[in-house]
Design goal:
mainly beta, 5-stranded antiparallel sheet
């Protein structure tokens, strides 16, 4: 719980300052751009609102569908005069849907109105952001941002801008990228004068640019007019620099043709928490095949911004489902590693789970750390016919533990199943494709957070429960689980079976203190369950025990009380009350 509190403290300054402390302005369908922009006399267009706000102001957009003819521009340094302002940490600009209402920017008419550029191609976007910072966009929807030509931009695009926050933004039905954000802060690795100090962001990360997405959805993207059809429609495409901290929390991408998340960064940090990528089947060709990339998360190396003491990628509690590649670590583009922390993720039914496929001469040793991560049901096969769970080349064992695989050192595979777990379909509540996709793309909760998912969650009998190690993420039970979804024993009620005691298995002592010992007369695999008297599962795990040996079951985190202990080994079973005295 300490880690959760730290996250809250990091974001609290932003949450309390994101209200805007200047003037409030309004846009509504019944408005007029000649009005003063008050609640009683609102403006009519998003463009009027965007270009009028300055530091500390809040622009509220009333609910309804706004049919727009041209991209909305926010550019304080526009060559025809300022179009909007620049926020500060203490006085951000907030552009938000009006509380309790939902505005939609529909861009279906853009291509009929965007003029030809003198040098050719027509770029289209819903919102274009240039030369600004400390802008908080929240609570609105953008749709129908099509390609007008063979080139691509983003439905929301930004350049030379930093310290942007996008919260509860929905983008869908797009003929190009969803978000295309290019940062505006350069560090000493990018030609900046190293003698001029960089002012850190006040949002708690120690970086001058902290750009964030919180609870955003992007879906239905395909660039059908490109020369290479479908291979430019990323839900997120970002380019940032050595002093940037780029953060995603609770974001989803589905039904896209290229990559769900494609963050490039020269140095800096890219941080994912609870994000889901599901390319879906929407854009298969006429014979039911894919001709596009469909990757989940594709992360470039840090390049010349490499810092050996920095984790350039933090990837936690995230899901890649039915992707060509679940997670790609693109270290091969340079001689430096991302030093990734990959904790508690589920990569399910992908062609290749995790790819870090180059180990070029001169590249630094593999410095990634993998913990509590689940890869299952990959459909790709390597050169010797084994499932492509991972392709992580390394001459020496890399830092992996408590995952469903381990380093093997074999040339074609470089991984082998972790013998601590036997992963099958029975480890999950459901593996049905339609059910999983429907739950991962279901409507969000009322507060904007991700929907509850049962399908990919661990079944109560899974030996992946309590199979992990503590990495600072809150968990239930005796230890963290493997995968993105922590099993909550309070949520599962089972019938308490009658007591039984077959010879050959014993549990002692009883009463027990901080641990109980399980001993068997024969070697084999045991399934251990511990229930409270309400029938809630407290412990469920599978272990191997040698003949006449004892397995220690830790009870140190349990409250004192009476429990039901069940140990099964083949046809043998012991089931009896166990008194836990506590420490």
């Amino acid at each position: 719980m300490k880690q959760l509190l730290l996250s809250i403290l990091i974001f609290l300054p932003f949450i309390t300052s994101a209200q805007g402390n200047g003037d409030a302005y309004y846009v509504a369908l019944n408005g007029d751009d000649s009005n003063p922009g008050t609640f009683e006399e609102p403006w009519a267009t998003w463009q009027k609102g965007f270009e009028s706000v300055r530091a500390g102001d809040t622009l509220y957009i009333r609910g309804g569908v706004y049919m727009n003819d041209l991209p909305v521009m926010l550019d304080p340094d526009h060559y025809r005069g300022p179009k909007g302002g620049i926020g500060t940490y203490d006085h951000p600009i907030v552009i938000s849907g009006y509380p309790g209402e939902w505005p939609i920017l529909d861009c279906s008419n853009h291509c009929a109105n965007i003029p030809e550029r003198p040098y050719g191609k027509r770029y289209n976007s819903a919102i274009t952001i240039w030369n600004t910072e400390y802008i908080h966009f929240k609570d609105f929807e953008v749709r129908n941002v099509f390609q007008c030509d063979s080139v691509v931009d983003g439905a929301i695009t930004a350049a030379y801008s930093c310290n942007l926050t996008f919260e509860r933004i929905v983008i869908h039905d797009v003929g190009q990228r969803g978000f295309f954000i290019q940062g505006g802060v350069w560090g000493p690795y990018d030609g900046r004068d190293p003698d001029v100090p960089i002012e850190p962001s006040k949002w708690g990360f120690g970086h001058p640019d902290t750009t964030r997405w919180i609870n955003c959805d992007v879906y239905n993207l395909c660039d059908s007019l490109s020369e290479d059809v479908g291979n430019a429609a990323d839900a997120w495409k970002t380019i940032h620099y050595a002093t940037s901290y780029v953060y995603w929390e609770g974001c989803r991408a589905w039904n896209y043709t290229d990559d769900g998340f494609d963050p490039n960064c020269v140095g800096g940090v890219r941080h994912f928490e609870n994000c889901w990528a599901m390319p879906g089947d929407k854009y298969k060709n006429s014979v039911g095949e894919w001709e596009v990339e469909r990757n989940g998360f594709k992360v470039s190396g840090p390049g010349s911004g490499y810092d050996p003491d920095m984790n350039h990628l933090i990837f936690k509690n995230s899901v890649a489902y039915d992707c060509t590649h679940g997670l790609i670590l693109m270290d091969s583009y340079n001689t430096d590693r991302t030093n990734a922390l990959v904790y508690n993720n589920t990569i399910f039914r992908c062609g290749l789970g995790i790819a870090n496929w180059e180990d070029d001469e001169g590249m630094r040793p593999n410095t990634h750390t993998f913990r509590n991560t689940l890869i299952y049901d990959t459909w790709g096969r390597n050169a010797i016919g084994n499932p492509y769970d991972t392709y992580i080349l390394s001459d020496v064992p890399y830092n992996v533990s408590h995952c469903t695989w381990q380093w093997s050192g074999e040339e074609f595979q470089n991984r082998e199943p972790n013998p601590a777990f036997t992963v099958t379909d029975d480890d999950f509540n459901s593996v049905d494709h339609a059910t999983i996709f429907a739950q991962l793309t279901a409507p969000r909760k009322a507060d904007g957070s991700l929907p509850a998912v049962n399908a990919l969650a661990l079944a109560p009998t899974s030996d992946l429960i309590d199979g992990g190690t503590d990495v600072g993420i809150p968990w239930f039970g005796l230890a963290p689980d493997i995968g993105a979804f922590e099993y909550d024993p309070d949520g599962v009620i089972v019938e308490i079976p009658p007591e039984t005691n077959d010879s050959g298995i014993s549990v002692f002592p009883n009463p027990a203190g901080d641990r109980a010992w399980i001993q068997t007369d024969e070697p084999g695999s045991c399934h251990i369950r511990l229930l409270d008297l309400q029938g809630r599962k407290v412990v469920s795990r599978k272990v191997n025990i040698n003949a006449h040996s004892s397995y220690p079951l830790s009870l140190g985190t349990l409250k004192p009380g009476v429990y039901i202990m069940e140990v099964k080994m083949g046809e043998k079973c012991i089931r009896e009350k166990l008194v836990v005295k506590g420490n």
